[in-house]
UniProtKB/TrEMBL annotation:
<feature type="domain" description="Carboxylesterase type B">
    <location>
        <begin position="5"/>
        <end position="494"/>
    </location>
</feature>
<dbReference type="InterPro" id="IPR029058">
    <property type="entry name" value="AB_hydrolase_fold"/>
</dbReference>
<dbReference type="InterPro" id="IPR002018">
    <property type="entry name" value="CarbesteraseB"/>
</dbReference>
<protein>
    <recommendedName>
        <fullName>Carboxylic ester hydrolase</fullName>
        <ecNumber>3.1.1.-</ecNumber>
    </recommendedName>
</protein>
<dbReference type="GO" id="GO:0052689">
    <property type="term" value="F:carboxylic ester hydrolase activity"/>
</dbReference>
<dbReference type="InterPro" id="IPR019819">
    <property type="entry name" value="Carboxylesterase_B_CS"/>
</dbReference>
<dbReference type="InterPro" id="IPR019826">
    <property type="entry name" value="Carboxylesterase_B_AS"/>
</dbReference>
<comment type="similarity">
    <text>Belongs to the type-B carboxylesterase/lipase family.</text>
</comment>
<dbReference type="Pfam" id="PF00135">
    <property type="entry name" value="COesterase"/>
</dbReference>
<dbReference type="InterPro" id="IPR050654">
    <property type="entry name" value="AChE-related_enzymes"/>
</dbReference>
<keyword id="KW-0378">Hydrolase</keyword>
């Protein structure tokens, strides 16, 4: 049985629903709709409304092209996408001023797709099992969120770069102002994300304006590497504008051009999956995030960081039988040591396959090594860093995915019964046992800043902080275990890669 739950915020009253001990409010605006003249501007403070606003349906996701994940969602579970997208969603045990720990989630999707309404990030289990308030949110994606216009035009009044990051900051500011009314503690906020969401956190750890808006961070399969220089971002912007046929005299029309044309031009900007991502603009983000973290920009933030054993298999699912080693890219990465490195990776795989070794190199290049580099730099200022690797191989798709990108999400969130999770886990036996353990570890970190479980709880060994001598890493699998410097030989192949 559901009942209405009304909460008063700084902008007006919201009506949510309470069911099975969890109250939920969906589609809460946290900034003005970024429409028309606001399309390329920083998010603007929300204008108050009168009366009680309905908050029982998800708001629109950011405008985006079709993605592989969208194909796995039923139409009824996928919210509409459009430019009016700055909404967040809240799950809470009760709107009772109890000051519970808060989890804020940034979704992934390569900065071009995704939303805060994905079925496997439903916050009910965290609220019910951890007494935690959960917030998921949308931010502008693709060109709308990250097209770099600085230096190209003066005709767009007040246009800014890094709009997607600014949206995330605006949401965090709204949460600071309002979360107490939903039963949350604004002084105990864990910011978590996966893939592009974790990469966003990697940037926010280096942004002074975000300091104090969150107090712990969980980075799943993303770190600090995926940012653009101004030169690279400007080159992408020039390509984008050329696709639209715009010259300098017509840049102002970017405020009114159809969103379908923007998405089409966005997709013609090259094959890189992060052509639209945070930019070192000199204003919000003043230097590469890893450099700023190395100087102590996030010195007060405990971190839980990890990757999945077979990240890149998600992106090679349809072509694994035809994967070949990119010898040119291998040479660019490792120079004269290229053949030796490939052999090290081959020996690490039971089948000794060069194509599978190449997929592992892609995994390390994009995900594992950047995660390790973040941990190494943060340790200079804060010992409270924990590292994990998710190793559980899914039997879905004939076992071709292994422990692929994003597979850990429904385990950490205890949403293994969602349709999307079942598609990727194939209802494997005993998967819930691992889900219970991971979910409990995430709850522990959110509540205490430490992922170690109550010693009376079986299933997870003692998990020490990461250090550069032993490099302890929790390997989540059917039988989870602590390993010291896993994949050590492969790690040592990357001395200069950040």
């Amino acid at each position: 049985m559901m009942r209405d739950v009304i909460v008063e915020t700084s902008s007006g009253a919201l009506r949510g629903k309470q069911q099975r001990g969890v109250s939920c409010w969906k589609g809460i605006p946290f900034a003005q709709p970024p429409l028309g003249a606001l399309r390329w501007r920083a998010p603007q403070r929300l204008q108050p409304w009168t009366g009680i606003r309905d908050a029982t349906r998800f708001g629109s996701a950011s405008a985006q092209p079709d993605s592989i994940v969208d194909l796995f969602n039923s139409p009824s579970s996928t919210p509409l996408a459009g430019e009016d997208c700055l909404y967040l969603n809240i799950w809470s045990p009760a709107a009772d001023q109890a000051r519970r720990p808060v989890l804020v989630w940034l979704h992934g999707g390569a900065f071009v797709s995704g939303s805060g309404a994905e079925p496997w990030t439903d916050g009910s289990s965290f609220a019910r099992n951890g007494d935690i308030v959960v917030v998921t949110l949308n931010y502008r994606l693709g060109a709308l969120g990250f097209l770099y216009l600085d230096g190209l035009t003066a005709s767009l009044d007040e246009a800014v770069s890094n709009r997607g990051l600014l949206d995330q900051i605006a949401a965090l500011e709204w949460i600071q102002e309002n979360i107490a009314a939903f039963g949350g503690d604004p002084e105990c906020i864990t910011l978590a994300g996966e893939s592009a969401g974790a990469m966003s956190i990697g940037s926010l750890l280096a942004v002074p304006r975000a300091h104090g808006l969150f107090h712990r961070a969980i980075l799943e399969s993303g770190a600090c590497r995926n940012v653009l220089t101004r030169h690279a971002a400007m080159r992408i912007a020039q390509t984008f504008l050329a696709q639209l046929g715009l010259d300098a005299a017509r840049f102002a029309s970017l405020e009114t051009i159809e969103i379908a044309r923007i998405l089409a031009a966005q997709q013609q900007c090259g094959s890189g999956i992060h052509n639209f991502s945070p930019v070192i603009d000199g204003t919000l983000l003043t230097a590469p995030p890893l450099e700023l973290i190395a100087t102590g920009s996030a010195s007060d933030i405990p971190l839980l960081i990890g990757t999945n054993r077979d990240e890149a298999r998600m992106f090679t699912l349809t072509s694994q039988d035809h994967v070949v080693v990119n010898q040119k890219a291998l040479q660019q990465l490792f120079g004269a040591q290229a053949s030796q490195v490939l052999e090290i990776y081959r020996q690490a795989r039971a089948d000794g396959s060069a194509p599978q070794a190449w997929i592992d190199i892609l995994t390390d290049r994009a995900f594992r090594i950047p995660a390790i580099r973040l941990a190494e730099q943060q340790l200079k200022h804060n010992p409270h860093v924990w590292m994990y690797r998710f190793d559980w191989p899914t039997p879905a798709f004939g076992g071709r995915l292994g422990a692929c990108h994003a597979l850990e999400i429904p385990f950490a969130w205890n949403t293994l019964d969602s349709d999307l999770a079942q598609l990727f886990t194939d209802e494997a036996p005993n998967r819930q046992e691992l889900g219970d353990i991971m979910h409990a570890a995430w709850i522990s970190f959110i509540r205490t800043g430490n992922p170690n479980l109550d010693p009376r709880r079986a299933g997870l060994p003692d998990w020490p902080c990461y250090n550069l001598e032993q490099r302890p890493t929790m390997l989540f699998n059917q039988a989870s275990q602590l390993a010291h410097d896993p994949q050590s030989a492969e790690r040592q192949c990357w001395p200069a890669i950040s």
